[in-house]
Amino acid sequence: MPALAVTTSAMALVGVVAGAFDGVFWGALLAAALVLGLRMAGERPTSLDGLAIGSTLAIAGWLTNRFLLDAVELLTPWVAVEVAAVWMVAGGLVAWVVRRHRPSSNPAALMAMWGLSGLAVVAMPGVLERLTVEDGKLGAATFVIAGIAIALVAGSATLAALTGVRGIGIGGAVLILTWFAGARVGFTLTGLVDNFANIANIPNFWPPDFSWAIGEGVWWNPVSWDFGSPTLANPLIETFQIGIIASVLGCLVALPVAFMASRITTPNTPTYVANKGFMNVIRTIPDLFWAILFRTGVGVGPLAGVLALFFFSLAIMSKLFSETVDSVDTGPLEAAKATGSTHFPAVRSSVLPEVLPNYVAYALYIFELTIRASVVIGLVGAGGIGRVIEAQRGFFQFDRVFAIVIVMLVIVFVIEQVSVYFRRRLV
Amino acid sequence: VAIVIPVVWSALGLQISWEQVRSAPADMWAIFTAMFPPEVSPEVVERALPKLMESLWIAWVGTLIGAFFSFFLAFAAATNVTPGWLAWSIRQILNAIRAVPELMLAMILIPVTGLGALTGALAIGIHSIGTLGKLSSEVIEGSDAGPVEAVASVGGTKVQQMRFGIVPQVMPNIVAYWLYRFEINIRASAVLGMIGAGGIGAEIVAQLLFRDFRRAGTVLLLTVVVVLAVDLISARVRRRIITGRAERGLLQALRSMNWWRRVLMVAVAVAAISALAFVLFQFQQALVA
After folding, report:
1. Whether complex ipTM tops 0.85
2. A342, A375, B215 from B209: Cα distances, Å
3. Which of A260, B31, B198, B201 could pair covalently with B120 via S-S, beta carbons 3.0-4.6 A apart?
4. Cα distance between residue A184 and residue A72, in whole Å
5. Chain B CB within 8 Å of residue A396 CB
6. Cβ atoms within 10 A of the Cβ of B214, count?
7. Count of Cβ atoms closer than 10 Å to residue A264 Cβ
8. Side-chain half-sphere exposure of B255, counting CA atoms within 13 A
9. Considering CB atoms only, which of A185, A195, A409 is closest to B117?
10. Distance of CA B99 to the CA centre of its chain
């Protein structure tokens, strides 16, 4: 692909010369995607096309970077117009290249699209100019960038629709989202390189302090049931106990919920919708959110952990299992109903035996996940080994933290292997 | 028996008093009634929404990091592409990466990249390399060998065999996994905020710490709404990618109606959009005032 190669190398050159790697980088990615999209659509963009698209987008990216990211404080409508003008030139050039390859596409529509996307960019800060520009708040610059992103997504989608080149739309949208996301997250390649020097800051993770974590001397005292070092072993056992109770309870409750959230076993629409909705909503709340909610509700301790992981396992189990019930063979159910059985006995005798092996396999998987999650819920005070990790992290004893993490990794790995073995045999 | 004994052991071993268990529903009910109705004043939303969006961006960047690196590692970890021992060792590396939770990665990375969104994105990205690499390599191993042999028989190089023999087969499934991972990563990035790696997690911790339950309710509600929306959209796109056909979209639905229904639907849509615009306008006015 000579065009692609020329595009990227032109980018690299401009990037080095301008000394502004980031804006150029995103412009270059955009250009590469456009050229790639053209090629995938069966066009043959020449090296000249690649050079034109690439350099224009790179300059546009660089200028945007200069106008916006350096001058957030000084944002005026005039800057917005400048940015819009830069991108309109870029858009116009891309449109021209596409037109060269597809004379049949409607030039008037292309022009309209181009103008509209430019207008959107100009209008966006004008509308929202009154908003405060303060660090961490909804600043106007955010909206300018958002406006550019929206306009370009819309523009590239239109372009794709007009020319039938799908790669432009999807690739453009993904890249622009990424550009925007990267700007918000502060993900820059130069920044990453700068930060890499900090790697020496990783404080004392190595070597892990196993003698503290595992303890010396007696590994297991059969009289007192203490395992190894008391500082670690008892919270570790607590972690397991939390995991076991939570996953068993979660899987038990998930059984009826999953049956009621499947069309096959629940013809009653309100029940189905209610259960499906319940399932989807509890699934959106992450495990640590549950933990901190219950910590606040029922106080610090293992009960909060059990309740949090109960909801965590209920959410995943009911989702997985209701999908299994959905895909069940309906023949036996119909047969049972044909013999005059009522609904519940029919479901119990026909659907349940069919999905039971899957249920047990999923339950093992859930147990594995729950143990894994129960390591971290202690971080917010919901019991278990996480409590110890949090305490040692507070003392900056990172070697001990790391030792615990490694011990946990080994345990989780063993559980996983056992669970995988049983699951293979079951399904 | 194998289940009952551990459960009894766990239940007896945990230091949970019966009174605590009995009063737990009442306690939780107290919390939930304190949270609802959530406070939806512009100030709270203005605080929470950018954080929530930051969580989304962290998840997006993290997923892309994971997708990019895992794509190449997946080929290296597939036994039908790479010689056995090499594939095995790369797979073990992926397993090791996968075994470290995002929170641990973030804790390790905080001294390097500082408190902030970048740390969260990197932690999620590294973890995603492990999970996506495993899933993608399984897809690659499950691919049909026919096209690869066909490309080889006309003299294609090893890279061309992969590019034209395997990639077209596996790409839909792999992209679907990327999207699926994006859904999971949104939850993960929400959690990462709790230890200061950017995103909504910091907000909920702060509000619960100050026992400002109505604001915590707002944060929770916003999280649920956004995650649910992303889940629904992503599930739709995934189904589309896997099955390869478009579902009945808005335009087709509109086209299939008769004309007065179309007018009705368009009127409803215009009313809904203007209502939304009105609310936003009020919001903005309140913000300016």
Report:
1. no
2. 52, 22, 11
3. B198
4. 13
5. no
6. 16
7. 16
8. 5
9. A185
10. 18
- pLDDT digits over B179-199, tens only? 999 999 999 998 888 888 878
Name the amino acid, one letter, at B112: V
> Which of B60, B63, B184, B204 to mutate to probe the A interface, most A CBs <10 Å?
B60
Nearest in space to B86 (alpha carbons), one of B94, A280, B248: B94
Q: pTM for the whole thing?
A: 0.72
Using a CB-CB distance cutoff of 8 angstroms, which residues of chain A are in contact with residue B219? Answer: none
Q: Do B57 and A184 touch (CB under 8 A)?
A: yes
CA–CA min distance B130, chain A (Å): 14
The tens digit of pLDDT for each residue in A255-304 reads 888 888 888 887 788 888 888 888 888 888 888 888 888 888 887 778 88
Tell me the CA distances in angstroms from A184 to A132, A136, A142, A143, B51, one per residue in order: 18, 10, 9, 12, 10
* Contact flag A298-B112 (C-beta cutoff 8 Å): no
Under a CB-based contact definition with an 8 Å cutoff, are residues A11 and A31 in contact?
yes
Of A138, A186, A205, the CB nearest to B118: A186
Question: Tokens 């944002």 belong to which residue?
Answer: A75
Structure token digits, residue B55: 């969580």
CA distances from B102 to A270, A415, B123, B195 (A): 38, 19, 6, 11
Question: In a mutagenesis test of the A interface, which of B97, B112, B180, B214 is the best target, namely the one with the most A β-carbons within 10 Å?
Answer: B112
Q: Which of residues 221-240 of A touch B (CB under 8 A)?
A: 237-238, 240
Determine, for residues B118 and A280 on separate chains, whether the beta-carbon distance falls below 8 Å: no
